[in-house]
Amino acid sequence: MGLYILRRLGSLVVVVIIVTLFSFSLIKFIPGDPVINMVGYFDPKKIGALRHQLGYDRPFIVQYVDWLKGFLHGDFGQIFHGVSGGSPAYAQIKRALPVSLELMAFAMVLTLLFAIPLGVLSAYRNGTWLDKIFSTTAFGLIAIPDFVVGIILLDFVAVKHGWLPANYTYWGQNHLDHIKSLLLPAISLAIGQIAGYMRLLRSDMIQTLQEDYVAMARAKGMPDRRVLWLHALRPSSLTLFTVAGLNIGALIGGTVVVEVVFQIPGMGTELFSAITQRQYQEIQSFVAVIAIGYVLVNLFIDILYTFLDPRVRSARALA
Amino acid sequence: MQELSLSPEAGTAPVGGGADVAGAAVEPVVVEQAPSRKFGIGAWLASIWLVGLAIAALIVPFTSLTTNPKYPNLADVGPFKSGAHIFGVDAIGRDQLSLLLWGARSSLILGVGAIAIGMIVGGFLGLAAGYIGGRTDTLIAGVFNVLLAIPQLVLALALVTALSNDQPHISGTSVSFTPVSPARRLIVLIIALGIVSIPVLGRITRANALTWAQREFVLAARAQGAKSLSIMIREVLPNVLPAMFSIALLGVGVVIVAEGGLAVLGVGVHDPSVSWGVLIAGNRSAISTGYAYLLMEPVVFIFLTVLSLNYLGDVIRARFEFRDSAL
Amino acid sequence: MSAEQFKDAPLDGPLLELRDVTTAFKTGRGLVHAVDGVSFSLERGKTLGVVGESGCGKSVLSKSVMGLLPKRNVERGGSIRFEGEEIGDAKSSDLRHLWGTQMSMIFQDPMTALNPVMKVGKQITESLRYHLDVSKDFANDTALQLLTSVGIPEPQRRVNQYAFEMSGGMRQRVMIAIALACGPKLLFADEPTTALDVTVQAQILDLLQEQQRERFMAMILVTHDLGVVANRTDDIMVMYAGQAIEKAPTRTLFAEMRHPYTHALLQSIPKLDQPSHSRLDAISGRPPDLVHPPKGCRFAPRCPNAQDRCREEVPPLAERETPGHEFACFYPVGTPEGDEARARNEAEGKVPGASALSTAAAAAASSAPAPPTAAAPKSEA
After folding, report:
1. pLDDT tens digits for B168-211?
2. What residues in B contact A250, CB-CB < 8 Å?
3. The pTM of the whole model exceeds 0.95
4. Which residue of B18, B24, B29 is in closest CB contact with C73?
């Protein structure tokens, strides 16, 4: 088990190096001179000096290693403010990351809170009108992009009717308002995911319910509720968690857009302003941070898997 | 953004009662609801919508709707709805119907173009990885995994930013930035979203190719001394295609939605081009200002299109799985 | 219906009585008549063997009696009385208090019938805790005793294992322990040994028999193998295409087999007393389509004795010469009519099985009653 995690961490390092190499080389793709973008005006002397200061006149791989060293020590590059110089991007990321993580966690909790009971119920009542309504609704909801849900909810619920706040409130300002202000964005992110997970769990659960061990549990006289939640859910949830891991990518992408829609000062909004202001060093670091986070989450889910499935646990104990 | 991963639908138990039916076949038959195996009414409706939309998007430059989006009619500044403009007119006098159809043009070109790149490049790589195996497989699968380690929208965002960076113009000491042309932006979007879809389509193809490469008829072809490339294309590819095609249909929907997300971030197609995403992003506050239709019309168009694509994708997958299990 | 009523139930009548039980599945092709008009009664502590090919409805029958089949897409009919109470039309919520405590079931494949992600100990104790409302410690102790009694060494260690960590025979023992945990009066054993190694099969059957005697428990042993039921049952019912076609006390049945199908089933088992390399009959053809069964006798298309009458008229299941021996055939084996019919068919070259006879070395059989080997009628997939 320990060895397994160690091996996974090893492959994690490889992925991180390649991903950061990729995100680092983005800046090299950029047509024109990124330094001009940073400075904002043309002064050959100043640009030359800045190029040298940033080390852009050195070989690519040296620049990369240098950047990676800095990155690992929390130097996420500079945010340039034209003539007045720059400020470290680290502060921005440090402020924005927890906001995004909180939003994603909120959305994930909402998703599982609704998707699991709905999926179980739908599978249990497979083929009934209730199941048909649930499944058809879910199929429709999957086709609605999360930012569309966000735009409609923001405009209708918050702006037009004022039922929930349209602006983000920090936890420090007011706890209740903070949660309220995250509710609509979290719902926007969760709706499509609920529908997707519900369908997934439903189809897995329908198969599990036809398994002999479910019939066995029933033949022992266990009540349906116990059979569903204790016997059938855990084996059925394995696919769910695998997909959840892969889906974190979609959740991150959705969060980026939904944050911009709701003007939540998280990673998405920061990334958005970094792009509009052509802050390439910041973009680089953002992409790297997001990718590392994504890989870590998948590792976490993989470990979670071991706790859900004893077969995997024993296979890995031997590995 | 929507998930590209596919939920395996519950396979229906074989309808039995016949001769060699074992105990399992007289088990109750699970009646799976939509989408059904048959090419039913839902699939027809979905096809009609998509084909109709594609035709409309093709012919829109040759209709009277031609000029409106590009040359706003300032005499008819909206928003309003009238008999002549049943879909309404927006705040700068553009007819909504022509915007929607011009938007369909961009969105569909984008979706199909990006997925075509993904299918050709990802398909070839996946096929090679799955069929050849060994080191080739390790390498290609590794590349897919790395590409998948960056969330798709973030990757697309980074690529679009890098590939369509505004051009600096230097005059004296002042620098001004000109956005790239709409056509170039569209091409960049297609390439970026195409690159994003490569690992997704590639991985599916690889997984399928892996199972097919072990089938008897492939082994038989190999034993007869057929060349690898010819086996790959003649024996493996035709069997992998249905799965790829089903994923590709869903993928077109995902790309259309992804462009919408990019439009909200300000990096969708460029003015004066429009896409559904740009229309949605541009009409974000339409409900509270009382012109909800400006927002809801492109929303409905995206919804119906993605719904149709998903539905058809599921129908194909259901058929494919059926064939697969019948072997 | 409540548990109270069952306490007052008469203890003298049969434990289980089926009358004209039918079970049909609704499918896209039409109704599949998996069980079609089956009747029998089972006394306390006795064993009934239900024998037939795959797909003859024998497995559906036990699930149907227990009420384990889903309500949707299933049509049930006839009367099922357990301890005098009608349970044929009861909802599963009304039957639940019977499951585990009054009747219990062992499934065919121990690989799939144990929960893969639940420790086996928990799978035993949960029904104890639920039905008998005992303490955790008591349930754990009982589980250990049960595992010991079904012959599992080191039960202390085994309770904390998962099914995948055990061998097939071990799993089947665990399943028996689970089924017996709450002391049922009736046990359905659905092909309990089919998925096991030949060497383990006899052990499991012996274990079932021993447990059954100790607990004075009735058992319905469902199998495709006449060899399995030969020494271990009181009565045998042979099923074909959803119907009972021959029913008799075990001794009687083996002494005078009347139905050509039963006869063919027995012929397909290799025997020690036959000279080696003697021909072994396999039943040719396939069971009929249960959506559109043949008009007359369902076995007629495959029967060596079949005459025109068999294809037109359904032979009734009735007692003829020996009391308690019922069979449904116009031209039974071992009777002048039957022999004559067969001779006629052979003369006309119409015996369906003649070309499909297979040979098998008698050496394949190792002990009597012969365990099933390669030549079993049609092994369950």
Report:
1. 666 666 666 677 788 888 898 999 999 999 998 898 888 888 87
2. 1-4, 151-153
3. no
4. B29
